[in-house]
Design a protein that fits this description.
- This protein is α/β, with parallel strands linked by helices.
- 36% of the residues lie in helices and 19% in strands.
- Helix 8 links the parallel strand 11 and strand 12.
- The chain is elongated.
- The relative contact order is 0.13.
Length: 318
């Protein structure tokens, strides 16, 4: 099965789409399928370097109908690409479309929505519908880390809000809330840019670094994560990391609400109002840091919900 992957990343888009198609590349290459990638990897080269390790060619930009020639299937994970089924089918390929509720929705031969609780979907003539977190794509490194998780007990906190530098100010507010818990911690803040750091109390340490392939090594020893409600949050669920979730952007709203309803995370609300609700945010973080029973419950529920086999289920269907 010759597979073409189409996705983009940028400072504003984030790196999540690249993370997901990397997971597809890994599992398809493991099956012996020829795989190629088309798209921008700006702000996500630390993820896209995996294409080079897998010997996945990166194709020059061109209309999808032209790129699809010579492939059996084209997988599109992109909110800005419209209805391209006709031209991809005309080129002899099936279209696999990744959508997040209404975001990225288009008619396709195979539609994948790996949300925690996908809502009703209109009949647009699509073929196979694969819906639910059972189809969530997880990279190989996430599955390997799941097997070697060893929380430090410090507690070790990791704050990760996607790959964009525009979230530095949001990270700064979250670090203030962590400080205000007045509890000891070692926090790794993974963010582009330079968030302002608060003065710290006894036993509190903050380390700032850019997102990198070392993220999973960091998460292997993380006791509590503070994360946006996107792709990284799904990875945290698979790993069983107790997480306080933030809704950063509109396309995360459905996943954020579902995560709280399913008992997968503690909720910190929308990023825009964090500073106005700082005492409330601090209280949520204090409870998560201080109560081992709460952490255990979140960890057990999350890891049981996301088993990491989603890509293979999609490729089996394809």
């Amino acid at each position: 099965m010759r597979l073409l992957l189409r996705a983009d990343s940028s400072a504003s888009i984030g790196a999540g789409h690249i993370s997901r198609v990397v997971a597809y590349a890994e599992r398809a290459v493991a099956r012996g399928w020829p795989v190629s990638f088309a798209g921008s990897t700006a702000n996500a080269e630390w993820l896209a370097s995996r294409f080079d390790e897998l010997a996945v060619p990166r194709l020059a930009d061109a209309p999808l109908g032209e790129l699809a020639a010579g492939f059996d299937a084209v997988l599109v994970d992109h909110y800005g690409v419209g209805d391209v089924r006709k031209e991809i089918n005309a080129a002899g390929a099936a279209l696999v479309s990744i959508e997040d509720d209404v975001f990225g929705r288009r008619p396709a031969d195979v539609v994948v929505d790996a949300g925690f609780a996908p809502g009703p979907r209109p009949d647009d003539g699509s073929g196979v519908l694969l819906r639910g977190v059972a189809y969530a794509p997880l990279r190989d490194v996430v599955l390997r880390t799941r097997d070697r998780r060893a929380p430090s007990g410090t507690p070790h906190v990791t704050v990760v809000l996607g790959g964009g530098a525009e979230w530095a100010s949001t990270v700064a507010v979250l670090l203030r809330a962590l400080r205000d818990t007045e509890l000891p911690f070692v926090a790794d803040a993974l963010v582009r840019g330079e968030p302002s750091l608060p003065s710290l109390g006894p036993g509190q340490t903050i380390r700032v670094s850019a997102p990198s392939p070392a993220l999973l090594d960091t998460l292997a020893t993380t006791d509590v994560a503070v994360s946006a409600s996107g792709v990284t949050f799904v990875e945290l669920c698979c790993l069983g990391v107790p997480t306080a979730a933030v809704q950063l952007v509109a396309n995360q709203e459905t996943g954020y609400r579902a995560a709280l309803e399913l008992g997968l995370a503690a909720g910190l609300g929308h990023a825009e109002s964090l500073e106005d609700r700082l005492p409330e945010v601090t209280a949520v973080l204090r409870a998560l840091l201080s109560d081992a029973a709460v952490r255990h419950a979140l960890s057990a529920t999350a890891s049981a919900t996301v088993d990491g086999r989603g890509v293979d289920r999609v490729l089996d269907s394809l």
